[in-house]
Amino acid sequence: MISKNSASSPLYAIIDLGSNSFHMMITRQLADSVQVVDKVKRKVRLAAGLNSDNLLSEEAMARGLECLSFFAERLQDIPTENVRIVATATLRLAQNSQQFINRANKVLGQEVRLISGEQEAELIYLGVAHTSCCQEKRFVIDIGGASTELIVGTALKPTKICSLDIGCVTFNRQYFSDGLLTQANFNQAILAAKEVLSPLIAPYSSIGWQSVLGGSGTMQALAEVLLFQNRPSIISYNFLKEIQQQLIENQSVQHINIAGLTSERTPVIASGLSILIAIFESFAIEQLQLSSGALREGLLYEMLPCNKKVSIRKRTTRSLMHRYHVDEQHAYRVKAQVKSLFQSLSSAWQLDKDNSYELLLTSCDLHEIGLLLEFKHHQKHSAYIIENAELPGFDQADRQLLKAFVKLYKGDIDISLLKQSVTDNQTAGYLLVILRLSIILCRLRKDDVLPHYQSSVDVNNTINLCLPKDWLAEHPLIADELVSEEKHLATLGLSVNIQCNI
After folding, report:
1. Are strands 287-290 and 234-236 parallel, antiparallel or unpaired?
2. Mean pLDDT, range 359-368, rounded to an integer
3. Does the reported pTM lie above 0.85?
4. Which of the chain's termini has less CB crowding within 10 Å, N or C?
């Protein structure tokens, strides 16, 4: 039965009793989207407390219960039906898990649910599906402290799931217990993981996939290293081997020194990396993108009264527009011009209606979100918001292109900002030009201003905008801005001609 205060409370809480860390996430629904208001993470290393008989030590239990006592205080004002608490791999393995769960229930004042490996895999996939925009079949990887989940699915439906009893904490204890980062230790760990993965290669490969995503601690840590180095956060096989070599050169866990790698991840990075290398080699994976969602997000979206018919990106975009009081009519007006110019120019520039095109349309909605802060630097504010806000449905690469569009939609063009991994730099430049011209043409922010006009690109990469001379004379501000755009487009090797006799 739902309590009286649940309807008035927008807060939801998720607690994940993981093998390596305990996590608590507090969220609320805001403008048809989800806003994280608090996150707490504590390194409990529960899996390290399992002995050879799979009995959880009293010391490990004490660490876990102390952490839960901190979480309990935060749950006091959240309705029970808005809370989900789950235990995963280590407590599935522990022979005395019920003893810990009973004590945890008393500390929290709520029920802890022990989920199976298959349930965990399904929830992980749901979390990825609700936070990543992908219509293709995807392969989702999650490496935890004591288990690894592999899932293939499309949209919101997983079609193949598996949970394996291998994880970064248990592998660390088995293959790096001496604290040494030797080639031999890596070889043993990788080979052991491959033996476990071997029976899955044929059934998974027969299904196939178009993209690979992952969101566990190991992959997040590797993505942070890439970002620290100003590289796209796409994890490739070559990058995994590069990190492995650096770790071997560091010689021991105590002496790990890799720029961008946090100290809390160093104890288990070698073991997690070994499992990930084994997965890449077993399934012939070339690269992996980081997902912003996993188990906790899956639990959350399973509980929320969300509209699954609305796409993830549309929910996120709509939420941002509402939050930053965007002029929706003007955004629609700009988008209509973008679609028209794209239709006219796409053939000459060989542009496709792919992900980069979808991001261009999104930039029409979001290019003015920084106006709520101030006008003078609103483009920088818009870029900052896109870089730092929670954006379910947009991965790091998507953010880079979106950020470039909103920061460069008028004024000087910094071509270095167009370097990203969604599309090639030239295509990104062409799309930016379409956005910039559309915004100039919509300068008066009225629906009945623009006349019928023609647009094309000639062999010299000059954009011809065939606007009536009388109309240009009546709208000197727009005409002047189109002329001024010439010097900006020269940065991209383009020019614009508006002197057409119609």
Report:
1. antiparallel
2. 96
3. no
4. N
